[in-house]
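[READ THE FOLD]
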Amino acid sequence: MKNFIKDHRFLTGLLSVFISVFLVSIVAYGATTIGDDIETGIASTTGAVLVGGDVGDDDDIIYFDASEENLTWDNTDTKFTLTDDLDITGWASTTSELNTRGTLHVGGAASIDGALTIGTSSVSIAKIIGGVCSVEFVGTLVGNEATTSLCTATGVVAGDRIMVTPFWLEDGLSFQAASSTAADTIRIAIWNSSSSAITAAAWNWQWFAFHE
């Protein structure tokens, strides 16, 4: 009778151990695989964090601040979407296109190593430079005639598209054209639309050059 009681107690204890180990295993599996929601403090890992499990064709979402903000992987459109601003303190780069649906604001300096295409134009712009050059037309321009002047514009190359802004022109004189046929040089043409001779004063003109 005593041996039976001892054996019974032994079996009961052994069974308790097995049940405890089983329950601990279940809890540990649930805590490490996280099939549904889980509330915890700080979570960290030295490896990868897998969101969405082994399913490779669905949308996955990471929520922040009581689910008011989120980062979503949109599998249909194959892109990430963020519900609020993204502030990058370091470098950001892309090997493809950078698109924006709203206004693109650059608060600091911007450097573009490749070509720039605006709108649907087939012409791309490789470089835009600008400055101020001194424009002086020598002599007196008689009525109904044109004359030209050359001004120094560092960085301009032959064939650049040139845009200039006259600082001042006397009454009867009008700006006609600007072009670049040599390095660091802009040719400016004006026209005397009056019937009287006019002497044009020297002024500093603003210019921009667009290199394709």
